[in-house]
Amino acid sequence: MLYCAIWAEAWLSDLGFCLIMAVTGVWIKQRLHPLRAGRIRSVTQLKMETATMRKQRNGIRRLAVLLLGSILLGSVSEGAAGKIPVPVIHVTDLYRPHCDPDDHWDLACVFALAHRGAIDLKAVVIDYPQVGRPERNPDVAAVAQMNRITHLAVPVVAGCPLPMKSRNDTQPNATSSDHHAAETVLRLLHSAERPVVIHVIGCCRDIALAGKKAPDLFARKCAGIYLNAGTGLPGTKLEWNVSIGRAAYAAIFDLPCPIYWMPCFEGKVSADRPEKRGFGTHYVFRQGEILPHLSARAQNYFLYMLGRYTDQNWLGYLEQKPDDKLLAEFSAKDRNMWCTGGFLYCAGYTATPDGKIVPRDKAGGAPVFTFDPIAVTCDDNGHTAWRPDPKSKNRFIFHVRDAQNYPTAMTIAMKSLLSKLP
Ligand SMILES: [Ca+2]
User: Fold this and answer.
1) Domain total for the chain?
2) From the CA of 209, how far away is ligand 1's center (Å)?
């Protein structure tokens, strides 16, 4: 709505400018025409005057076109954080019944950013359920609820059931159903007017497949992959999102587009390397700090998931009065979180230590996190090695700059996002 209002305002001001230019043009024609002005005394003088006037008119036309163009471009550059909403594809292991409820919190965050016009949410891709967990289905009901709450119409597709056998495995024998998600991603990149951001907060498979099938398209049309997987330092067991698809995780690091790597955990930090601290996104918040402050519909979105409902009553549940008992029960529980910073950053924002969401260039000298340029490699088994590289233009790592305030800042930022959901 905000974005529409900005466009409407911009176009109205452009219309006003055009009217002014038209009136000015008529006035100039009336005032300066040589015959009307009575300044012509011979045919030769008329020809010379006419040639001079033509040059002046062409100059005025060029100036008008330049002015009009700059105004139109100026209106396009308006919007959230001073830019057009960045197109986003959200890839998540979002199931019903839920696996880890953090994915539902994350889905609400990206919908909240879309609702306020900061991103253009193009699609949600949900991982194919894990082997041995057939009762878990991609939670299309949660996406339907968020569409209902935000008045958006974001499409949702399910991912590929086949694991990649190697980091270059493009699965030539897969069916169209198997690659529905990967092909959807490629179609969206191909048709997008601007490069698209991709958030991966579950398995890497579908984006790795899409990227390996069309690396040139990723080079041209992917603005960055926000990769929520792995650990910042080696020496610990593989993180969950890596363990469910090592080859796919390794393949992401091969892609010719920016990678904003968001290690889920810091890893094993040695006491003699204190400068290596802060390279993990994990934080914890108490759900009661946010849930009671949400709209009834937003509360019901969470309670329908947290209560593990698997009926078909997603719309009916959304519209009812929130269940006070469930609300109290889950408000008293903590929640592990990881991905919030990347959602803000891709939209042009960061957070201050006191949790204010601010444009990245207005954070002053103290953003609570940064993305630092690095050189990074990943072997076939999902083990990464990296080092700072100030010259790097397309590999970055999430860096918590203020560990003391980071969890609170992310919680307050999330609360301010979600509390604006209708
Ligand atoms: Ca996840």
Assistant:
1) 2
2) 19
Say whether both 47 and 110 belong to one domain: no
Domain of 50 in residue numbering reads as 2-76
pLDDT by residue (tens digit) across 288-328?
Answer: 999 999 999 999 999 999 999 999 999 999 999 999 999 99
Q: Are 390 and 371 in contact (CB under 8 A)?
A: no
| Model confidence pLDDT, tens digit, residues 185-203 | 999 999 999 999 999 999 9
> Ligand 1 mean position to 95 CA, how many Å?
10
CA–CA gap between residue 91 and residue 110 (Å, rounded): 11
User: 231 Cβ partners below 8 Å, 6+ apart?
Assistant: 239, 263, 264, 265, 266, 267, 280, 384
> Domain check: are 23 and 140 in the same one?
no
Spacing, Cα 267 to ligand 1 middle (Å): 18
Query: Are residues 60 and 91 located together in one domain of the fold?
Result: no
Query: 343: Cβ–Cβ under 8 A, 6 or more apart, which residues?
Result: 106, 109, 110, 113, 199, 226
CATH number of domain containing 114 = 3.90.245.10
